[in-house]
Amino acid sequence: MDEKQHHDVIIIGAGAAGLSAGLVLTRARADVLLIDAGQPRNAPAEHMHGFVSRDGMPPLDFLAAGRAEIASYGGRFLAASVVAIERSADASFGVTFADGTAQTCRAILVATGLVDELPDIRGVAERWGTLVHHCPYCHGHEVREQKIAVIGGPQREMSLKQAGLIRRYSDSVTLITNGIDLTPAELIRLTAFGVAVEHGFVSGLTGAPGSLDAIELTDGSAVTSDAAFIAPRQAPRDALLRSLGCQTDPATGLVGADGSGQTSVPGVWAAGNVVTPTAQVITAAGAGSATAIVINGWLLQQDLDAASVARPQ
Length: 313
Prior knowledge:
By secondary structure, the chain is of the alpha/beta class. The protein has two domains: 6-115 and 233-310, FAD/NAD(P)-binding domain, CATH 3.50.50.60; 119-230, FAD/NAD(P)-binding domain. The chain is 27% helix and 25% strand. It has helices at 16-27, 59-72, 136-139, 156-167, 184-192, 239-243, 281-310, and strands spanning 6-12, 32-36, 76-79, 82-87, 93-97, 102-110, 114-117, 132-133, 148-151, 173-176, 195-198, 202-206, 214-217, 222-224, 227-230, 233-236, 268-270. The strands form four sheets. Strands 1, 2, 3, 4, 5, 6 and 17 form a seven-stranded mixed β-sheet that branches. The longest helix is centred in the last third of the chain and has 30 residues, at 281-310. The protein starts with 5 loop residues before the first strand and ends with a helix. The mean pLDDT is 95.
């Protein structure tokens, strides 16, 4: 347990957004405690992509490097799960952990990310992040010229977009509708673009551990595949933000945060996938950096106000 009990900022979630914010704030000489439960979303992936100077880096190596940088500036880390955040009468925050202990801070940054809710299809979970992917920009180049299947699902528009994007990487792309009813226009557009369309429902994925041979359909047929893409539902880990009373966006249902990450609750910010599910690693890191600068400015204004009040008249 961190011996110091009160901090300038507590950052909940030490992924790309949280680490980036932590680096900016510790370099600005703020007292920062980063809390992380050790469940990074991209842990199953062997590499991450699209992050300039870090392309192809294993995600866990990226996290370790970020932690080392922050620690070198005095930032502290705590492996714990946060169960509650309460706002005190003096506008500070109390953060309670699963073991019953607590620490306090002046400002909160929630960067807890999201959970990919995988479809209940045999063989998907054990191949997630290695042979079954969701982001063409993150993994499309690595499966170029392979036989690729796009499995449709509840995120209809994203499934269709995946099929089109993946076609740029391979001449052998099959969209398995899996419950999606294509309009005649959609069918024409996809097939004209070179995407094969298989109407049917998926029963499972086949192949030895660490490999993928085919996507089996409930009618007994199969689509030979080397890799697959799905569009899972994405559930932000935003329970803490909601418990604080942060307002949600009526259009998206997501907790709302402005361009600086400020929520509707003073002193509470959010960055990364918890409020922007589509953010990639580099995007989340950028959001964390921008939010940290605003938080540091907010802390400065508090200090200036306090100093003015304390000055003898």
